[in-house]
Amino acid sequence: MKYIDKEAHLQAGRDITDQYLDTACKVDDGNENYHYQNVDYDGSFGKSGAKDAMAQLALDSQGNLCCYCMRDLHLQNQDVTLEHIIPQSSDVAKFNYYIGLNVSPLTADNVMRTGDFTGVQNIKVPPRPHTVTFENLVASCDGTFPDKTGSSQCCNHKRGNDDIFPLFYVVTVGNDITYTEDGSMQPNAQCAHHAEYRVTIEKARLNCANLQDIRRLWHLFAGERMETLVSCLADKDMRWVLLMQVLYHDAGLMAQDARIQTKFMKNDYWKTFLMYHWFHQKI
Questions:
Q1: Kind of pairing, strands 177-179 and 26-30?
Q2: pLDDT band, very low/low/confident/very high, at 148 (cuts 50, 70, 90)
């Protein structure tokens, strides 16, 4: 897991939101009064081009990596979704829960519930409405794998509107998370948000079988050159040899290794495996 530092891109993100609000949502009531209406992430925000611009900025701030699973979203033209950390449909209680976490930049100074924002006349920004502000938006993969089954999905679409803890906004998250030899993702017992991390991992299904298998392979190939792993995409014989060299050495993981052998001899799965190159020599 990688910390997302938005500082260098915050102003650009705020500019995208402000331009959208002023051009698509601001209504002059006369007598120097105004209000904002119809702040619509799924409608005018997308039609105005602001959503695409925000998605690209989020990718830039994340190094093109999915906020949850570390898939490279720049490779193979991966579908990118914008994840609302505070869900779009949040009521006051849910919104206050997230603001109460006091995780920067997701603070009351920066973000306001959209329904409340549009109800205030002559409101000044910041704060900005939560459904269209950069602080509340991160880039996620679409959570699918080549088998296309629901049980293998993860990340944004699998989380839905369930409550999570924005662990990617915690500076120490890289040290707070451990990836074990079988590829599972676990919060370290001593980290301050151990319980919240565990819930988030479960809600986003970051320990689904496909992710565990991919991370186990990166663990096994930690000493292998990336150039060799990439060349295996076109050379299945080499891929077979490499897999047989690293699999079936742990008696407790034989079933998983058999699954990995079958799965990753398929080209589409090997392509997906390579999209997770962030894990090379990290686990």
A1: unpaired
A2: confident
Q: 50: helix, coil or strand?
A: helix
- What is the C-alpha to C-alpha distance for residues 280 and 212, in angstroms, rounded to an integer? 14
With beta carbons less than 8 A apart as the criterion, state whether 262 and 253 touch: no
What's the count of helices (H) and strands (E) in the chain, helices before strands?
13, 8
Supply the DSSP symbol for 132: S
d(CA 282, CA 219): 8
DSSP state of 123: -
Determine the Cα–Cα distance for residues 97 and 65; give it in Å rounded to an integer: 27
The string of pLDDT tens digits covering residues 206-229 is 999 999 999 999 999 999 999 999
pLDDT of residue 78: 64
As a whole number of Å, the CA-based R_g of the chain is 21
Distance CA 253, CA 172 (A): 30
Per-residue pLDDT tens over the stretch 118-129 = 999 999 999 999
| pLDDT tens-digit readout, 191-208 | 999 999 999 999 999 999
Bond into 127 cis (ω within 30): yes
Tally of residues, the chain: 283
Q: What share of the chain is helix, strand, coil (3-state, %, to 5)?
A: 45, 10, 40
